Amino acid sequence: MSLKLLIRSATVEDAPAISALVTASAREHIASSLSDSGLSHLLSEMTTENQAKRIRSGYQFFVALESDTLVGTAAIRLPSHLYYLFVDTQHQRRGIGRQLWNHARDWIASSPNHGPITVNSSLNAITAYERLGFAIAGPPEENHGVRYQPMRWANAT
Ligand SMILES: CC(C)(COP(=O)(O)OP(=O)(O)OC[C@H]1O[C@@H](n2cnc3c(N)ncnc32)[C@H](O)[C@@H]1OP(=O)(O)O)[C@@H](O)C(=O)NCCC(=O)NCCS
After folding, report:
1. Higher pLDDT, 26 or 113
2. Whether this model's pTM surpasses 0.90
């Protein structure tokens, strides 16, 4: 990796850039596994307003920056659910997702009262989560037309 990656906690000022990144990524990578109504629901959850609400209400968001440009984001719904893990398409497969995950995992491990780490993987991301140490934890599920695979981190902290 040539450019230095900075990972820091997000603030509400980051909400527009987070919204833009996850929306573009969902359209590109997740849409094909969803119905039209599932995609509409997913995108409606990804607005700037909703990201700001999550940050204000205590979700722990991290942003990964290269030269002040947002290249990825991770979010934790307390105590230990990995709510988002997204890397901008042009920056994927360079280890940024793993660095964001390590950051999120270390944060959860040092937080009080955390349980096993879970994620609801979009169907396209299951292999990547397996490479990060997650295992399938039950059958695929669907909520508002959004299909996902419940997974749990196998090396429970
Ligand atoms: C999933 C995602 C965050 C991974 O980010 P990334 O920066 O490309 O991941 P990394 O380069 O750190 O790779 C981490 C591991 O996953 C593997 N991996 C990443 N993308 C993969 C893919 N599409 N298929 C198979 N393996 C993949 C890598 O090989 C690596 O494993 P290794 O270190 O054992 O070789 C990224 O692909 C993404 O944003 N996808 C679209 C959004 C999405 O679906 N997010 C999940 C929502 S629940």
Report:
1. 26
2. yes
Hey, where are the domains in the chain?
5-115
- Coil, strand or helix: which one is 85? strand
Question: Which residues contact ligand 1 via a Cβ below 6 A?
Answer: 25, 29-30, 85-87, 92-98, 121-122, 124-125, 127-128, 131-132
Q: Mutate which of 87, 89, 94, 119 to test ligand 1's pocket (most atoms within 8 Å of Cβ)?
A: 87
State in words which class domain 5-115 has: alpha beta
pLDDT of residue 156: 46
- CB contact set of 27 (below 8 Å; sequence gap of 6+): 39, 43
CA of 5 to the centre of ligand 1 (A): 17
Q: What is the atom index within ligand 1 of the atom nearest the CA of 96?
A: 7
In this predicted structure, the answer to whether residue 37 has a pLDDT above a threshold of 80 is yes
β partners of residue 136: 151
pLDDT tier at 157, thresholds 50, 70, 90: very low
Tokens 């205590």 correspond to what residue? 58
